């Protein structure tokens, strides 16, 4: 067991060590005049469907005689990158006026395939010295009087490359619509593909060559929107803080008056009804195992989010560090599984649970299970489409090994540590033998209306940032302002905690003592709001289409929203538990 654990930990640490350099080709990025600079073709796909990408040579481009695939890291494969040698020769500081890449006659089938790609706004992505560049395959010329327009395929590409001493700093690609071939009709088309290169000197240092990709997200007008979002969220937090402080002071004041005047009448019983259910408020919830598993999984996801933010703030996820985020998610999730095991088992035993092994298995499957089923379905869809999103068999084996050698052993070790912690549930009041009857409640105090109220405020604090995150993940925009995103995340946690505490107080005030599950559901309800935003974004803010892209978007976003539900539900419960313990410590429980 120890040997397996050591092997698993070594595997995870090795992957984490590679993460910072994910996407690099191992060179020092220094070249002499005439040196070959690495150029890899990556993928092609419809511009509006970011998940639907295909291998570069799935289309009839000019290919080297023996194209060689680049060896890729785990994160690159998860990201759908499939790098392969490109036939262009862009040697360092060598200008080329016009060089023929290849001459070929496109068959009717190839013409039809390229015409369909141009009609769907297909783009290609290439990496030159680890710098990304994009271009469109062609364009639809709709301004023709006859035939309803033409479909043009670009046959010449011009590269503008900037250098500083012995380093490549920037590369741009241009296509000339005037140098294009008409592929409107179904017939064989002879075509000569060519390219040209121009080198220019620049003073931009090598260390700042990636800054151009992040400028769009930090432009003044965008920063104003981000800061407006933060100010709006901070105002919400301040109002909630004041509101809760008022409630707490009022509760303590009433308690002080009650203790000072023992013969006080019971006229204000309805106002302070939470005092009269002290014998039921710490009665353990139903479905203890599922409840403890949710708290364990939510704690792990919260730790995962915090670690990811810390890595982002220190600059690990710079633009186009291929696959670094996916590698980090896989490795850190595996390494934090011990948190889930410890928290779930310890809390389950505090709730006087008996079958802690079954609870540990449930904890391990609670988030991974739905995620694995979703992945299996979507990977099958990607295989059917022959898309690069389909993971190779070797990558699936690596992920299974990480799960078997890292995630599962750490989960078990965490569970054993939680079992041996021997902590008892700290309840300031003794629980009565028989539960108190809960009075009839109006409809707006039922679970679903309370969840709607609980989820709205935290969602309103983050919805502005959500658009930029979605446009980055499901579009081609770049998000690099991780410090602002971390502030918004902290605000989300605080608002969720405050709102859940307030609703728990109102629930107890009307003598409804079943607050355990309600606090989890109210805290996690923001995840449901995010899912509704997914539906709105797909239909109103994006141009995604097709079965594959739709299934990828809703499949993975459902898993993300479910993760938010578990994480924020845990935050809501923990905050409510602290609050309930505090107020019941301040009264005499007989």
From TrEMBL:
UniProt xrefs under InterPro entries: EMP70
Membrane topology: Multi-pass membrane protein
A Pfam family: EMP70
Protein name: Transmembrane 9 superfamily member
Record's signal peptide: 1-26
Organism encoding this protein: Triticum aestivum (Wheat)
Keywords: Endosome, Membrane, Signal, Transmembrane, Transmembrane helix
Subcellular location: Endosome membrane; Golgi apparatus membrane
Transmembrane portions of the chain: 225-248, 290-318, 324-349, 361-385, 391-413, 451-474, 480-503, 515-538, 553-580
GO BP term, pick one: protein localization to membrane
GO cellular component, one term: Golgi membrane
Sequence similarity: Belongs to the nonaspanin (TM9SF) (TC 9.A.2) family.
Taxonomic path: Eukaryota, Viridiplantae, Streptophyta, Embryophyta, Tracheophyta
């Amino acid at each position: 067991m120890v040997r397996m654990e050591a092997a698993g930990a070594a595997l995870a640490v090795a992957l984490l060590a590679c993460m910072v350099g994910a996407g690099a080709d191992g060179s020092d990025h220094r070249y002499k005049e005439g040196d070959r600079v690495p150029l890899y073709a990556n993928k092609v796909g419809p511009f509006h469907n970011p998940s639907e990408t295909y291998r570069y040579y799935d289309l009839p481009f000019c290919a080297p005689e023996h194209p060689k695939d680049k060896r890729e890291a785990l994160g690159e494969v998860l990201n759908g990158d499939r790098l392969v040698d490109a036939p262009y020769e862009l040697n360092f500081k060598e200008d080329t006026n016009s060089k023929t890449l290849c001459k070929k006659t496109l068959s009717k089938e190839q013409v039809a395939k390229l015409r369909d790609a141009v009609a769907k706004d297909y783009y290609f992505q290439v990496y030159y010295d680890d710098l990304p560049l994009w271009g469109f395959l062609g364009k639809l010329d709709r301004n023709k009087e006859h035939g309803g327009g033409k479909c043009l395929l670009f046959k010449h590409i011009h590269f503008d490359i900037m250098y500083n001493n012995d380093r490549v700093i920037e590369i741009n690609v241009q296509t000339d619509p005037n140098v294009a071939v008409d592929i409107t009709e179904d017939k064989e088309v002879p075509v000569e593909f060519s390219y040209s290169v121009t080198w220019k000197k620049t003073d931009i240092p090598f260390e700042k060559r990636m800054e151009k990709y992040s400028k769009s997200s930090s432009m003044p007008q965008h920063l104003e929107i981000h800061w407006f979002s933060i100010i709006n969220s901070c105002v919400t937090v301040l109002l909630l803080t004041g509101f809760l402080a008022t409630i707490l002071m009022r509760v303590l004041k009433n308690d002080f008056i009650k203790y000072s005047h023992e013969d006080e009448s019971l006229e204000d019983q309805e106002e302070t009804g939470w005092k009269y259910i002290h014998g039921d408020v710490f009665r353990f919830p139903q479905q203890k195992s599922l409840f403890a598993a949710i708290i364990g999984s939510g704690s792990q996801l919260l730790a995962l989010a915090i670690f990811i933010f810390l890595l982002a703030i220190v600059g690990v996820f710079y633009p186009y560090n291929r696959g670094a985020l996916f590698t980090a998610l896989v490795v850190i999730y595996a390494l934090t599984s011990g948190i889930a095991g410890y928290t779930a088992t310890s809390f389950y035993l505090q709730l006087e649970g008996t079958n802690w092994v079954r609870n540990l298995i449930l904890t391990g499957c609670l988030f991974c299970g739905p995620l694995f089923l979703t992945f299996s379905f979507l990977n099958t869809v990607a295989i059917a489409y022959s898309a690069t999103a389909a993971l190779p068999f070797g990558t699936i084996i690596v992920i299974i090994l990480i799960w078997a050698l890292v995630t599962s052993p750490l989960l078990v070790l965490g569970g054993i540590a939680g079992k041996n912690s021997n902590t008892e549930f700290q309840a300031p009041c003794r629980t009565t033998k028989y539960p108190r009857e809960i009075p009839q409640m109006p409809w707006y105090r039922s679970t679903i209306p309370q969840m709607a109220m609980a989820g709205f405020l935290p969602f309103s604090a983050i919805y502005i940032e959500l658009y930029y995150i979605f446009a980055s993940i499901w579009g081609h925009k770049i998000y690099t302002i991780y410090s602002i995103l971390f502030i918004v995340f902290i605000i989300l946690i605080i608002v969720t905690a405050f709102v859940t505490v307030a609703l728990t107080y109102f629930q107890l005030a009307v003598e409804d003592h079943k607050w355990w599950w309600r606090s989890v559901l109210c805290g996690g309800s923001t995840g449901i709001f995010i899912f509704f935003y997914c539906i709105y974004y797909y239909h109103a803010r994006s141009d995604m289409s097709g079965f594959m892209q739709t299934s990828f978007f809703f499949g993975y976003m459902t898993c993300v929203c479910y993760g938010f539900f578990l994480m924020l539900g845990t935050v809501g419960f923990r905050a409510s538990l602290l609050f309930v313990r505090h107020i019941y410590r301040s009264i005499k429980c007989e």
